[in-house]
Design a protein that fits this description.
single chain, alpha+beta, two-stranded antiparallel ribbon, 3 helices, globular, signal, C-type lectin domain-containing protein, CTDL_fold
Length: 105
């Protein structure tokens, strides 16, 4: 089954981490994020949709090359945003990461 998943060709989405974002703290403790051209900002994260169909491991490597990660949807609102963004770009499928390995407090 995992071999089948690896060979599946899907589109992917990148959420770049704050490591590469040009953000700064305001006095109200809000974060101002400036994404690079071609990226979209939402809730202090930069998103970019790549329409090239690639296997998951290649999508992950691309994300890491940008200093980010494949998006890991954390809540309903992020799910809606990501789904709508992909749909607006003509996409139907995309990779997401799994949060089950993340420890929560």
């Amino acid at each position: 089954m995992s071999e089948m998943i690896r060979t599946m060709i899907l589109m992917y989405l990148l959420m770049i981490s704050s490591v590469r974002m040009n953000g700064y703290w305001r006095s109200t403790r809000e974060i101002k994020v400036d994404c690079q051209p071609g990226w979209e900002v939402k809730d202090d994260n930069c998103y970019k949709y790549f329409s090239d169909p690639v296997p998951w491991d290649q999508a992950k490597a691309t994300c890491q090359a940008y200093g980010g990660m494949i998006v890991a949807v954390k809540n309903y609102y992020q799910n809606e945003y990501v789904g709508n963004m992909v749909e607006s770009k003509g996409g139907k499928r995309f990779w997401i990461d799994d949060l089950s390995h993340v420890r929560r407090c």
